[in-house]
Design a protein that fits this description.
The chain has 140 residues and is an alpha+beta fold. The chain has 2 helices and 6 strands; from the N terminus they run E-E-E-H-E-H-E-E. The strands form 2 sheets. A 4-stranded mixed sheet has the order 1-6-4-5, with helices on one face. Strands 2-3 form a two-stranded antiparallel sheet.
Length: 140
């Protein structure tokens, strides 16, 4: 793989992008803390990337490989409370996009993601506590 076009550490407890459930008043409810985690990821990505190219609506417009290592505040990353890996990934991929006004606008849509390399680890394995090590490469 080539040099990464994005590499950053997002501190905090990674949260899944769960299934939306209706609340009965016409609104939808997501996993508690999910939106706040998505905002945290987007904020760090925006701060890391800096300004978008002049005239560009997104920071990168080509195909990418996304690498994610989730450091979770649990000893057993296979426990139910650790969260499903695919739902952890989904929240990060959404944060990189443009769907929500708070999203990073790194890419237009997660359809640009052609490869994902991800894993869950116990935060005890990392020196920085719970969080996400995020890396994005141009897909080649």
């Amino acid at each position: 793989m080539s040099l990464p076009i994005l590499s950053c550490w997002v501190p905090g407890k990674p949260k899944t992008k769960g299934s939306l459930t209706p609340t009965g008043n016409g609104k939808m409810h997501d996993t508690p803390g999910s939106h706040r985690w998505r905002q945290q990821v987007a904020y760090i990505v925006k701060a890391t990337c800096g300004a978008r190219r002049l005239g560009a609506s997104v920071w990168y417009d080509g195909p990418v490989t996304v690498g994610m290592v989730f450091y979770l505040p649990v000893v057993d990353v296979t426990a139910v409370r650790a969260g499903d890996l695919d739902k952890l990934e989904r929240n990060v991929l959404d944060a990189l996009g443009c769907t929500d006004p708070d999203d990073a606008r790194f890419y237009e849509d997660d359809v640009q993601v052609v490869r994902i390399l991800s894993e869950k680890r116990s935060a005890a394995d990392g020196a920085s506590g719970p969080g996400l090590a995020l890396t994005v490469w141009r897909y080649e």
